[in-house]
Amino acid sequence: MSHVLGIDVSTTATKAVLIDESGAISGVGAAEYGFEVPQPLWSEQEPSLWWDGAVAAIRSVLSTTGTAGNDVAAIGLTGQMHGLVLLDERNEVLRPAILWNDQRTAAECDAIRRLVGPERLISITGNDALTGFTAPKLVWVRDHEPDVWRQIAHVLLPKDFVRLRLTGDHAVDKADGGGTILFDLAARDWSPEILDALGIDRRWLPKTFEGPVVTGSVSAAAAAATGLKAGTPVVAGGGDQAANAVGVGAVVEGTVALSLGTSGVIFATTNQPLFEPAGRVHSFCHAVPDRWHLMSVMLSAAGSLRWFRDALAPGVEFADLVGQAAEVPAGSEGLFFLPYLTGERSPHPDPLARGAFVGLTVTHDRRHLTRSVLEGVAFGLRDGLDLMIEAGMPAPGQIRASGGGTASPLWRQILADVLGAEIATVTTSEGAAFGAGLLAAVGAGWHPSVVAATDAWVTATAAAVPGPEAQVYRERHAGYRALYPALAPTFRAC
Fold it and tell me: Whole-angstrom Cα distance, residue 136 to residue 110?
């Protein structure tokens, strides 16, 4: 049986997922690695780790499944977005990659707004200048590392460095390209106006492709390293959030994806480019041809629950902790939790925002604290969803959820009540890597379109629907929304 391979180049590991023609996962290989924090607010990684991880993950999944390289029909790529990879004319790495979670570029974001104009920037790219994006990182290198700047010949994103090593080609998908904020969102390609304003040479940037389009094929050298067959086609793929949306079937307008991991992401497909006027939610190209998406991002979603467990209930299993919270009524008897433990992006693009419990009394115990964490994350996600609806997105009827946080029936019910939509789960848990493999299947000709492929391979099952407590949460959400404006001066003084 033929297979496709989805490769996910994340911040902490590279994963290779092998998928057969029915859409079933035959096996998974993975290789872990770390990243560096050389100074406060910095986050960097050696690109060689991604290629070494990809080689190890591919060899592992082929070996453990007994699959020959010539049984792989096509390969799709996904991975961490927004990172900056700089290469010279010989394709040698000039400096460690600057990652999506690097926070050094606040001054550069201000400079971009001045150079382009804040409203003009959002109207072209769909986004404000934020420290996580690629463009501010390039401006930082220009202003702080002129020796590196003079040697730049190629600019790539993390997964596309793996593509280069696989195929020898410089290429990027349009979804990941949109996340650089160097894109003209409507044109789905690099923006001459933005590049000129920032002094970035267009020749440095790779050609852009739609997600299921073949960008190259596995080279003889890469075949020898990985065990794949030389000539195997490699499709463009997508940034991790767009690929995850493909993996859960959020590929048509009206179907929304929710990723509840360390961070929380609400992702909605749109048929036209939409943007929130203040740039408080993101607008990028989708990995689906001629589709776009809106996306709100919460930095500490399930990460808030992990922090709470580790700090106040060490050693307690998550299922036990959350199970006890079910004994507390909706609203946690007046207790609120603000989940801004690592700052926030949507709806408050504020790196100085902080977490807080508000309303504590002697009547509250650990059960109330736990439930308030679950509710606070749901309220924060609702804030982002409201901004997306205000930007023109249709209100969702169904939200397809993935990530570790969705394993909790209580949390799923809270999300359904707060978000006002059916929460569904899907048949695969491999998210972005599965989506990359699905894009590869389209590129291999197994399916005529991404929509047809998700119809064939992705099945959603309702897990929770809004219940009688939804009204309680509507009232509580109004109180939650008043807390950030009230506490923001305190956060800035911390």
Answer: 9
